Amino acid sequence: MNKHFQEILLSSTGATSFFEVELIQNLWSGYGKIMRYGLKGSPMKSVVVKHVLLPKGHNHPRGWNTDLSHQRKLKSYQVEMAFYENYSQKCDVDCYIPKCLALETYGDEVLMVLEDLNEAGFRERKTYVTEKEIKQCISWLAHFHAIFLNIKQDDLWEVGTYWHLGTRPDELKVMEDLPLKNAAQAIDQQLRSSKFQTLVHGDAKLANFCFSRDGNKVAAVDFQYVGGGVGMKDLAYFVGSCLYEDDCEELETQLLDHYFAELENALTERKVAVDFRELEKDWRPLYAMAWTDFHRFMKGWSPGHWKIHSYSERLAREVVEELNKNSY
Description:
Blueprint: H1 3-13, E1 17-26, E2 32-40, E3 46-53, H2 67-86, E4 100-106, E5 109-115, H3 131-147, H4 169-173, H5 178-192, E6 198-200, E7 209-211, E8 218-220, E9 227-229, H6 231-242, H7 245-250, H8 252-269, H9 276-283, H10 286-301, H11 310-326
Antiparallel strand pairs: 1-2, 2-3, 3-5, 4-5, 6-9, 7-8
């Protein structure tokens, strides 16, 4: 960390000194690191620092080393900073996120100093979740979507999610599933044309949720792909990140029902003026559409991925058939 960033870290935390505790993770494609630092002389014991340092050469794990890929990552960090600066204050205990203590750019480096969720009571990371924990995450998403429903923004992604068609022409080009490839624009248009738009997290996978020890509370991290969209995008992606295909199918209706019950409660609590029945009628059918949209990305990006399974193929086939039927 350069000297300027060291000074920002100390001033933003009131610490007299800091020390490295651990590397939490390297950022995708070698774009920096997320570190945990211990503090001395501060009321906080530790903070998490996201330090973005642009690589000298591109090194994508799956070989997508294009300038477009590079520019997308650059914008994603600008978006994350904008989210923390201009929107994060709206989030509360029902969709907890780490408090942002400092944001700084210096040359081609970015620094984000964030509350340590371990110290805030969210120490647990899960690779397997119970139904209760799944529903906690879905509740988080419902509150997030309620808070930002119909919000006007121009400094995040116009269309949220990292797999959005407009930012993934390379993956579309190499797709071998021609019916899905040919339907990609129509699927994107269906999702974008909903009159009920909110902010979506954009990368709401299980790995980006942190849990309390009792599993009754959850927080989320990683806001690089926040932008406009329908809530079904986050929901479909989250469910696909933590359930195998049989459970995805078996629990589909139950989890959708839970999401909409939580969304209605969140909208009511927050006194958001919206016709909920109309919103649900609009969004619920878009679950399969959103699932298929991500499936389209996966089939171009990593055709052998475990998420490409019979449930996803069936949903995609039904979506494409319905679109083709309606086009005549």
